[in-house]
Specification:
By secondary structure, the chain is an alpha/beta fold. It is 23% helix and 25% strand.
Length: 608
């Protein structure tokens, strides 16, 4: 049985960990761009005036009948649409302002018209082309309304900028807090960024472009994917839209070939989960494939054709490509019938997801507990899945495909999959599912899972797990996918990190040195423990970027305080203290360093 201590102590760098980025949605909590207009909901139309005797619906649903420019900005407002109560105007909406920082935001725009701000935003000042508004957490919703737009010089290029970014947004579009949290990852998967699931993209000219008023309709443009990978020196993983024609696929390949740093790898995958019947792509392939061919063999030509086009586009540079075939980790027959019908040598890896979730018996137990279920119950049943069903599914994939073909088994997604049964339902144990996400025991589960995955990597090779997902709030119905809940703040006990995120940080390391990247200084603050494990005394080293008051505290893995080791002023630079824990029983201990708003947490093991 693998150790629950996992990668924090293993010193094993065979498993690289990247991350999926969260889809562009107005109700999410991941904000990559300082211009939040790029993540607003698509235009909502409404009456230009309030009619006392009218219905005055929130959304009249006629946005497609208002002429717009190539980036989606209406050419004229108010606009007369037949069948509506009066002339129509539009609003942009964000439905999760609580995940944004409070403060003074700036609206900039080109053209002539009238722009207004409602709900959690209160206008401070207004002049043509520029508005300042104060955002406060009240109703959880923000609306920027476009009430007038003059034909011939219509309002366009609207930017809604986070506090303090007006003078810098043109040179640096990225949110600093987002970049900071993303820093450790050296591989990024853009499946959700590209809104791959249920994509309607077919022609290259219809793809999203940088100037689009929002990216929540067709996805984040490929150019931004390339730029962030180049900036971070991170490998890239992209997904081809399932309906994309040959011209689209070829142009996409050329764009990434010519735009991405040649030193970086490009994973390319056809669509996403094309065996999953909850997505449009699976139905489309079933209906548009050769009806004389059985499913899932019917989908193979689509995968083969797409990867062949990329191979041709990268002629002479195929060492940059990792052509990847996605499979279903729990459905071995489907995996076999896809992989073994691909042309040998035409792809480089196959990829199941690496999730641990609940077995049928776990669901039965949680249903029986109902509202009395606790986060500890959730972790107990999740651990049994890690040790049983989830590991065995991947073991079968490894033995059946990887060992047979020699192909690497890498993971397009992975992490906890603790969702209710049925998915999307409101179950009495839903609160326990959410509570478990920030319990210290979740850290142990992730470490245990990473050790399990290392067991499927042959000696001399390096595997890859793409965590799912980066930032997202907890949800008891549809899953708590984010390893962070916010890029601006985070729930206790880990402060600015979280158990899932911390486990990943502790597992990341430099393959050449075996040094955990988590122990390297981030923004000048770092914490390390030696020896680890220890049997009586441990030396604690920490680096401070500036002089200030710090607290150094020991907790057990349930988050209960053991003792305060330091609570005092300390100078900038290297600091050292020793902790004698000879009076404690064996077991894991969390050491937390707090310096101002920043927090670092490390796990150590006391062994008698």
């Amino acid at each position: 049985m693998v150790s629950i201590l996992g990668s924090a102590f293993a010193g094993d760098c065979r498993l690289r960990i990247g991350t999926n980025l969260t889809a562009p949605v107005d109700w999410g909590s991941e904000w990559p761009f300082v211009d939040i207009m790029k993540y607003c909901r698509t235009w909502i139309t409404f009456n230009s005036v309030w009619l006392e005797a009218g219905e005055n619906p929130w959304d009249t649903g006629v946005v497609d009948r208002i002429p717009a420019d190539e980036n989606g900005y209406p050419l004229e407002l108010p606009f007369t649409v037949a069948g509506t109560e009066t002339t129509q105007v539009v609003r942009a909406v964000w439905a999760n302002t609580f995940s944004l920082p409070e403060g003074v935001y700036t609206v900039l725009y080109d053209g002539e018209g009238t722009v207004d701000v409602e709900f959690d935003g209160s206008i401070i000042s207004q002049e043509p082309g520029r508005i300042l508004f104060d955002l406060r957490h009240r109703d959880r919703i923000l609306s920027v309304n476009l009430l007038e737009s003059r034909r011939g010089n219509h309002v366009r290029n609207i930017r809604v900028l986070m506090p303090g970014t007006e003078s810098t947004h043109a040179q640096n579009p990225w949110c600093a807090e987002w970049l900071e949290k993303l820093e450790p990852f050296r591989a990024l998967r853009f499946m959700d960024w590209g809104l791959t699931n249920n994509s309607a993209l077919m022609r290259w000219e219809d793809r999203p472009v940088i100037g689009d008023y929002t990216y929540t309709q067709a996805g984040v443009p490929y150019e931004w994917m390339i730029e962030i990978c180049n900036r971070k020196k991170a490998d890239c993983w992209v997904c081809i839209p399932h309906q994309a024609d040959a011209d689209y696929i070829r142009n996409m390949a050329v764009l990434f070939r010519d735009g991405l740093d040649p030193s970086l790898k490009i994973h390319v995958e056809y669509s996403n989960e094309i065996w999953n019947w909850m997505f449009d792509q699976t139905h489309w392939l079933f209906e548009n494939g050769d009806q004389a061919v059985d499913w899932p063999e019917r989908i193979v030509p689509f995968i083969q054709n797409s990867l062949d086009i990329w191979t041709d586009a990268f002629s002479g540079q195929t060492e940059r490509l990792i052509r990847t075939v996605g499979v279903q980790g729990a459905w071995q027959d489907v995996s076999n019938r896809v992989v073994f019908n691909m042309r040998p040598g035409s792809f480089d890896a196959f990829s199941p997801a690496a999730y641990f979730g609940f077995s049928d018996s776990a669901y039965a137990a949680l249903s029986g507990l109902g509202a009395s279920a606790t986060a500890e119950d959730v972790l107990l049943w999740a651990r049994r899945s890690v040790e049983g069903q989830s590991a065995e599914w991947l073991r079968t994939q490894y033995e059946t495909i990887s060992r047979t073909t020699g192909l690497p088994m890498i993971y397009y997604e992975g992490g906890q999959h603790l969702t209710p049964d049925p998915f999307g339902s409101d179950q009495p144990y839903g609160q326990a599912l959410m509570d478990a996400q920030i319990l210290p025991g979740m850290y142990d589960l992730y470490c245990q899972w990473f050790d399990t995955l290392r067991g499927f990597i042959p000696d001399g090779r390096t595997g890859l797990l793409m965590n799912f997902s980066f930032i997202g709030e907890r949800d008891g119905r549809y899953g708590s996918w984010g390893v962070l809940e916010s890029q601006f703040h985070q729930s206790p006990p880990y402060g600015d990190t979280a158990p899932k995120y911390q486990a990943i940080l502790d597992a990341l390391c430099d393959p050449g040195s075996g040094i955990s990247r988590a122990n390297l200084s981030r923004d000048g603050l770092s914490l390390s423990l030696n020896p680890n494990p220890f049997n009586a005394s441990v030396r604690i080293r920490f680096h401070l970027p500036e002089h200030g008051r710090i607290t150094l505290t020991a907790f057990d893995v349930r988050g209960r305080q053991i003792t305060v080791l330091l609570d005092e002023e300390r100078p900038a630079g290297e600091n050292v203290t020793d902790w004698d824990a000879s009076g404690l029983a064996s077991g894991p201990v969390l050491i937390r360093l707090k310096a101002g708003p920043r927090i670092e947490v490390r796990k150590c093991l006391l062994v008698r």
